[in-house]
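Honest question from a wet-lab person: if I give you the sequences of every part of a complex, can you actually get the arrangement of the whole thing, not just the pieces? Trying it with mine:
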Amino acid sequence: MYTQNCIQCDAKYTPEEILYTCPKCSGLLEIIYDWSGQSISRKDFEGIPLSLWKYKALLPVEREPVTTNEGGTPLYKCERLGESFGTGTFYVKHEGLNPTGSFKDRGMTVGVSKALELGMKTVACASTGNTSASLAIYGAKAGIPVVVLLPAGKVAMGKVAQAIMHGAKVLSIKGNFDDALKLVRDLCDNEGFYLLNSINPYRLEGQKTIAFEIVDQLGWEVPDRVVLPVGNAGNITAIYKGFKEFYELGLTDKIPKMTGIQAEGACPVVNAFKQRLNDIVPVSNPETVATAIRIGDPVNAIKALRAIYQSGGLAESVSDEEIIAAQKDLARIEGIGVEPASASSVAGFRKLFGMGIIEPGETVVCVTTGHLLKDPEEVLSICESPIEVEATAESVRKAVFS
Ligand code: F0G
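Yes, you can. This is the full assembly:
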């Protein structure tokens, strides 16, 4: 049993109501479960291979899910990179290894399953790219139309390729992500399309499984800190909720410090955190190489700030240069290929350790949210070009040893 609860005025709504914010006070909604009378123990999860639907008992979906085997992503131990930072070993949870190459698949397998359960006929979203790619495949699998609104010229090529190949109707909006989100919310309200941005509380339920998997992979240990990129601020909220639920169910004994990283050119959550505010002042012209998190007015900011304050975490910004350096180091030292937004988690970890804010000995998990192949153009612009040589053994040898 669960309800949709307003985080602001605590109004409760039934699971069937199609809502994205509270009709009474416009507050954000979250799914709250009543697990009393049910006994959920560690044993229920033992011996089952890692995957998102391993946690079906803790998810708000009754029907057979629309799934393409999401979750079960690796938790890598980064010894060499950790040593080069001076921090010692840390972990990377590589969400880029989900079916479409980002963590969005966790939200969409739950969100699209819920859309069918609620009888919705069309699904829609605004996106900096990954959300649209993910919604496109789950819509295809479910056999329902998908409409996506993208900020023109600011979406990485791999993501657009996925959205169009999987058959979504792709609109390129002459504006930024924040404009696209306002437009799609209006479209959904007026046309009865189901909105699957992270303002949808059901979508975030899928993403909370990142927390469950981290605990599972660490043998029921909870890390001291989880570091991740923040854009529209849904994922930090979702992962915090996952850790909180395991704690409240008595399965774990603590909650990690949620540590959100934004790019310097798009950091309203960091600005709010540094002034100890409970809400943000939007940034009007966000800009960063990390296009996935090029967002000035994150819809889940209030929830994200609560997650940060309640967990004793923090928010910090990193420059595009720091993001690119972390992206290259992950690729070249650990063999982990990520897109720029994802590398911001590791860049933030390095910076915070350098500042003495993250302490030696902390168990830290950085979440890398999207795959390297999402944004090949950025890679080509920051790496050496291939060396052109004549097709002779001598020229090849010369080039190899030059
Ligand atoms: N990392 C990547 C690779 C993303 O695509 C996003 C968000 C984030 C981090 C930030 O997550 O919004 O939950 O704080 N991408 C959205 C999209 C906005 O449309 O694909 P968040």
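Two things worth pointing out. The first strand starts at residue 2 and ends at 6. Residues 1-38 form one domain.
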